[in-house]
Write a structure and sequence with these properties.
The chain is globular, with a radius of gyration of 21 Å. The chain starts with 5 loop residues before the first strand and ends with a helix. It has a single domain, classed as P-loop containing nucleotide triphosphate hydrolases (Rossmann fold). The chain is an alpha/beta fold and 326 residues long. The chain has 10 helices and 12 strands.
Length: 326
């Protein structure tokens, strides 16, 4: 990254959900969805977060945008905490941080026309006159590849790809600096995925946007992102550039994810980094390293000591005792 200006800082973020009933008397139990996550996002970069379903990546994104309140930790935008004032967070930060949701249908109100869906943030924040808002909506529709004469139609009249374009247009209405992309293409056909990803690339360059792109698909993240963080069971286990991750992954879990990517050539042999067992419950996570119950290289230290996320080479961070001892 040429521009190293930090736009967003997340430090030791934790999001715990209390479990009702069946808890041990005198001791509360929690589902530890996010358990001590830290990372920085640079201005104008696309930062990817990948991992299996249930690893906490979407919870992290929803907490940053203000849809969830963290149990503890700190989130700073341009060096200023955005968690100290709940009202200020919801109003001022909405103009700077927006989100594109995974399901392009359920994220749109079926009672509203497309024009009203896109215009809603402008109405809520009382931006400009009614004519100015409608004019902006028409321009945004054209910018994301929709016809402005479709402004009076309803969400059910559009395809999945078109609905996601509507969601992108809505996220752009307040001219945000940071957009959280919560698996925005996972519900779409492969050919449509490529169109949406290319559109997001164009918008990023044109508007100078910063993305946090959440996905379980490493190939999709590699296409769009500059750096990638790998999450497992509420923890980040590796962060580095996309090229470094694909060529020199260090954490055993990252290697397993990479080896699971389908290769179109049936004659090509790939390295298989197998992992054992199932993902533990975030209600009763393992002690020590969160991955040690499935790791083929686990030692006694891994079961008792939590590995730090250390920089092993420039901009390459790994949380693994085995890697740290090299």
């Amino acid at each position: 990254m040429e521009n190293k200006e930090v736009l967003l800082e997340v430090k030791d973020l934790k999001v715990y959900y209390p479990v009702k009933g069946n808890s041990i008397i005198g001791k509360k139990e929690y589902v530890k969805a996010v358990d001590g996550v830290s990372f920085n996002v640079y201005k104008k970069e696309a930062f990817g977060i990948v991992g299996e379903s249930g690893c906490g990546k979407s919870t992290t994104g929803h907490t940053i945008v203000g849809l969830l309140r963290p149990t503890s930790g700190e989130i700073k935008f341009r060096g200023e905490s955005i968690l100290s004032d709940k009202r200020r967070y919801s109003k001022e930060m909405a103009e700077k941080i927006q989100i594109i949701f995974q399901d392009p249908y359920s994220s749109l109100d079926p009672r509203f026309t497309v024009g009203r869906c896109i215009r809603e943030p402008l109405d809520e924040h009382k931006k400009g006159t009614k004519e100015e808002r409608n004019s902006l909506v028409e321009r945004l529709m054209k910018e994301v590849g929709l016809n402005s004469d479709q402004i009076t139609r309803y969400p059910h009249e559009f395809s999945g790809g078109q609905r996601q374009r509507i969601g992108i247009a809505r996220a752009l209405t307040l001219s945000p600096e940071l957009i959280i992309c919560d698996e925005p293409v996972s519900a779409l056909d492969v050919s449509i995925q490529a169109q949406i990803l290319n559109l997001m690339k164009v918008l990023k360059e044109k508007r100078g946007l910063t993305y946090i792109f959440i996905s379980h698909n490493l190939s999709v993240v590699h296409h769009l992102c500059d750096r990638i963080a790998v999450m497992y069971l509420g923890h980040i286990v590796e962060i580095t550039s996309k090229d470094e991750l694909f060529e020199h992954a260090e954490h055993p879990y990252t290697k397993a994810l990479l080896s699971a990517i389908p290769v179109p050539d049936p004659d090509m042999k790939t390295m298989q980094a197998e992992i054992q067992g199932d993902v533990p419950s975030p209600r009763h996570p393992p002690t020590g390293c969160c991955f040690h119950t499935r790791c083929p290289f686990a030692t006694e230290e891994c079961s008792s000591v939590v590995p730090e996320l250390k920089e092993i080479s420039p901009e390459h961070f790994v949380a693994c005792h085995k890697v740290h001892k090299r």
